[in-house]
Every structure is written in structure tokens, then in C-alpha cells.
Amino acid sequence: MNPLELARAEPGPAFTVTLDGRELEALPGQTVAATLWAAGVTSWRTTRGAGRPRGIFCGIGVCHDCLVTVNERPNQRACLVPVRPGDAIRTQEGTGHEH
Amino acid sequence: MSTEPGPPRLTIVGAGPAGLAAALAAAGRGVRVTVVDAARAAGGQFYRQPSAGLGARRPQALHHQWRTWQRLSDGLAREVAAGRVTHLPDHHVWCVERRLDGSGRFTVHALVGPEQEKPVEVRADAVLLATGGYEKVLPFPGWTLPGVVTAGGAQAMLKGTLAVSGRTAVVAGTGPLLLPVATGLASAGVTVAALVESAHPAALVRRTGALTRRADKLTEGAWYAAELLRRRVRTLVRHTVVEAHGDDRVEAVTVAALDAEGRVRGGTGLRIPCDTLAVGHGLLPHTDLAEALGCRIESTGPRVWVDEEQRTDVPGVWAAGETTGIGGAALSLAEGHIAGRSAAARLGGRVPDPGEWAKAAKAREELREFFGAIDAVYVPPAHWTEQVTDDTVVCRCEEVTAGAVREAVGELGAADVRTVKLLTRAGMGWCQGRICEPAVAGIAGCGQAVARRPFALPVPLGVLSRAGESGEDDGDDAPP
Ligand SMILES: Cc1cc2nc3c(=O)[nH]c(=O)nc-3n(C[C@H](O)[C@H](O)[C@H](O)COP(=O)(O)OP(=O)(O)OC[C@H]3O[C@@H](n4cnc5c(N)ncnc54)[C@H](O)[C@@H]3O)c2cc1C
Ligand code: FES
After folding, report:
1. Which of A9, A54, A62 sits opposite B144 (nearest CB)?
2. Structurally, what CATH architecture does the domain formed by B387-444 represent?
3. Helices (DSSP H) in B236-281: which residue ranges?
4. A21-69, pLDDT tens digit by residue?
5. How far apart are the CA of B146 and the centre of ligand 2, in A?
6. ipTM surpasses 0.90
7. Which residues pair with B96 in a beta bridge?
8. Which fold has domain B9-134+284-373?
9. Which residues are in the BFD-like [2Fe-2S]-binding domain (chain B) (predicted)?
10. N or C: which end of chain B has fewer CB within 10 A?
């Protein structure tokens, strides 16, 4: 049993997004964070100071640990942003403005 | 109160159990209601729904009290169709402002959309804050590793996006929320290697008075306990997480037994392999919008102070649900109902008769008493700071360590959280101290101050400079 089966989910057709250029499958209705979790990725940024990996912490938009760059816009909260076909997601280093 | 023609307008911030109960109570009584919520769908935390695009045909598999939700969501749909309620989802409120024109009216400022770009203003004759709460997590070595999530966060990701972060989880911390989180993850196919509760539920027995009056809540707890047993989830009480291990993500946690004083008992460490640690130490009310309005905030919680009618001490501002103190969905429903009725009467120029909501008031009293007893038992271990090593990050945003906080107190002489903050930058990052404040106060050994955050969200400077110029958004609401 997985969560989709448990809730008897029948999502619309899956689509493709990229994480640092690598293709991932995403489902309509998911957030960027859920898409990354489904692909087995739990960290997608490194901190400004010590360069440590971070991903989801609070899951509801409070902690800002899940910041990520989506379509060249840095500092998006992955737990809130809905994923869209063709999204180019990039792991974010530091403030996300270094590139 | 209204200076414009048409029915008076009540704006409710939050579409959780409290906000929805209030909306339904007020809408039927001559008030025009606008419900503003950051989420893409109504429900709040307890009734968080899977995104529509996921096509969940059995969302109730992840829920408790589904019938209550159906009543709320049907009611909302009915009132929206009748034009008495406007629901504005995806609206992130960053400030509620009392108008300076002497009208006693309000402007609710929001940013629209998940990326929160477009500013919007909603006008109101009265405001009801039903913004709920968020989770408190105290630090321990390894708590910043990916795969360590808040217990409520694991639940929110599961309910809202049908996603889990791994295959094997440990659920740990303290409080009744750990039970639905552990059973929820287990039913979604995650192996729950252990449920680790630092309190001893046997302590509840000493408080039976408050508890037996809410036999329904006790049965609910027993149901979860039976469910955990059935799923063979190992439950460790009076145990705490000492450390999360891993390099780039969590690979195992060490838990240990606590003695009667709440100190880790030497030699009891137990290492449990897992790829997810869902951890929580209770909930904290969202008080920022109330703070900015100048409402009285009580330091226990901290929470928004309300009277018997759920009014704050600022005229025209009501508050209901967990923003006024943590107590679960049933209490939020009762408070919302009372707040909605009170607001409707007052906006109609009447003094309400509390007899109208006697049943809700009784439930409110019993549930506040019940959660008072729960709160007294489910507290973090008394000596939790002894497990926080100097190199443990305390403020996740600014990467301030416990050592730096201790130095600010010991060598630099800081005596309160504000000074620690100024000396270390703890609490000055993105989350504005929401996550680290209880930890900083605990490690510094000083009381938690009532925060004064000017805004509920980081607001782009461009939006601030244009505030007041943007269009009014009342959704599909045609001007009267
Ligand atoms: C992450 C999390 C998960 C939880 N899961 C469970 C659970 O599974 N079982 C359980 O028994 N209890 C759970 N709880 C406890 C839960 O808080 C209560 O049971 C109940 O939902 C409280 O109702 P409420 O109406 O007061 O607030 P909530 O249900 O929290 O609703 C508040 C609403 O206000 C909105 N909001 C807040 N701030 C703003 C803003 N600035 N602008 C716009 N909108 C805003 C939020 O989006 C939310 O929809 C959870 C709590 C949290 C924090
Ligand atoms: S996980 Fe906390 S803001 Fe996204």
C-alpha cells in the first residue's frame, strides 16, 4: 500500500519536469516537494553558511527550510508551490543568487 | 458599524475548523462573509484535503471525523452558491490593518498565488482571526538532517499531496498529535519502526476529572492505541530522541529512556535505523496578525486573549481556534461557532444572548479543561537542553549554534531572548524565529518573550511601497 493507493487516487496523466537537468515524472496536483519526495530526493538546497543539505521540515510554509529555485526564480517554498509541466527545478546553493 | 450600503462584512482569516464553523454561523445571520486562506482548498490542518489534481476517490482513508468535514464543506458550498460567503483560497495574509479614517473598519492585505506575487486588499467591518497553529520542535544533534520533519509536516504532506519521504519512519517527541501521525504513516505503507513519547500517559490518570467529562476524546486516544498495536508499532514511553544520525540525510536515530526527573538514563541508548524521523513537541498558536493589530497576547502559548464571546480586546476583532490556544479540532469548531454568532449579532447592532450557543459553550469549557490536563502531562523532558551539544544548530535559518547562544548568555551577559537574538542573529532569518524561539529561550535559560512581528510573511519591498494602491479583491462579490 502507498498513499496514492490508500486514497484511491486517480491523478491526471503524469508529466515531465527536470531537477538540475535530470528528468523526473510529476503528477498534477502535487507540489514541487511532493514530486521530489516521490523521486526519492529529500534535500534540494544547501545552507548559506555551512553548506549543509536541507529539504522539507515543517511542510506547511512556516520554516523556509525547503527553499528551491524553480524556473530561475530562487527561494520558492517547495512545500507550497504546485508543480507544472516543464518546470525546471534547480537545487539551490546559499541565497540562490550566486549563479 | 458599516458605512457602506448592504449587509455588514465579516472577513475571516483561516478556513480550518474554526474559520469554517464561524463562517457558517455568521452567514445565516445577515452578515456577508469573506473567508481568506493561504491554502488552495478549505479544511485547515485537521481537514487538509489532497489537491484536486490527484483525483483522490477515498480521501477519508486519511481522516478522522469525516462526517463533520462533509457537513462543513457542504455548508460552505451552499453558502458560496447562495452568495453569502466568498472563499478566497491561495491568499496569504501578511497584515490586517485597522483603517485610520475613524470608521473602525479594516483592510486585510494578502499576496495571491503560491509564489505570492500579486498584492490584494479585502475590506471588512469586522475581522475574525482563525489562523490555527504550527508545530514546535526542540533541537537535538542531527535535527537539521534532511528526512527529519515535523510530525505535523509529515501529516500535512501525506494528507495534502499523498507523499511520504521514505519507507521507514520513527515518530517521536511528545503530545497527542504523534498518534494520528504514526497511524497515518503506517496506513500509507510506511514501516513505523517506533513511536517514542517522552511523557508517561499514566500521569493522565491523576487528572481523571477533566478527562472523564470528554469520554469521546479518551475513546479516540484508545482507538489510536489499538490501531498502533494492530500494526505492531513499537511504542516507547518516557523515551526521547537523543540524536539523529546520517551524513546527507537521516539514517538512524538514537533514543534513550528518561528518569523520573526527565534526564536521559545512561546506558539506555537504542539505535533505530530509519530514513524518516517525524518529530514534534506540541503546537504553537499563530499570533502574528493579532500582534500587528495590537491585540492582547497571553504569554502562555503565547496565544490571543479572548472573552466569552471570542472577542479580542481590539474592537471589531474576534479570534477562534488554535490561535487562542491549542486544543484540537473539536474545540476549534465550538469556538468558531460562538465567534461567528457573536460577530453576526454585534455587526447587526444587537447584544448577543449567550443562551443561543449554550451547547457550544459547554463543549468549549469541557475541551479547554481536557486539553489543560493533556498539556500538563505532555511536556518536553525537563532537562532536554542537556542533550543539545554546543555544535548543534538551534536557529535553522541563520545557522546559530547552541554554543553561540550559551556564549551570549554566559560570556556576553545576555539576560533575555531579545538580547540573545541581537548578539547571535538567532531568530532573524526567514522564519522570523517561529521555529527556534522556544529552543533559544530554553537554552538561554530565560522566559520566552511575546514576539512582535510586523508581518505574518516576508513581504517584497515593492508590495510594501505600493500598499494601499492595489485593487480590492472580493472574489466573485459584486459591489452592493
Ligand atoms: C501541520 C499540522 C498538522 C496537523 N495535523 C493534525 C492531525 O492530523 N490530527 C489532529 O487531530 N490534529 C492535527 N493538527 C492540529 C490542528 O491544528 C487542529 O486540530 C485544528 O486543525 C485546528 O483548527 P483551526 O481552525 O484552529 O486551525 P487550522 O486548521 O490550522 O486552520 C488555520 C487556517 O488558517 C490559514 N492561515 C494561517 N495563517 C494564515 C495567513 N497569514 N494568511 C492566510 N491564511 C492563513 C491556514 O492556511 C489554515 O488553513 C495539526 C496541526 C499542524 C500544525
Ligand atoms: S517545509 Fe517549512 S516552509 Fe516548506
Report:
1. A54
2. Orthogonal Bundle (1.10)
3. none
4. 999 999 999 999 999 999 999 999 999 999 999 999 999 999 999 999 9
5. 12
6. yes
7. B108
8. FAD/NAD(P)-binding domain (3.50.50)
9. 393-443
10. C
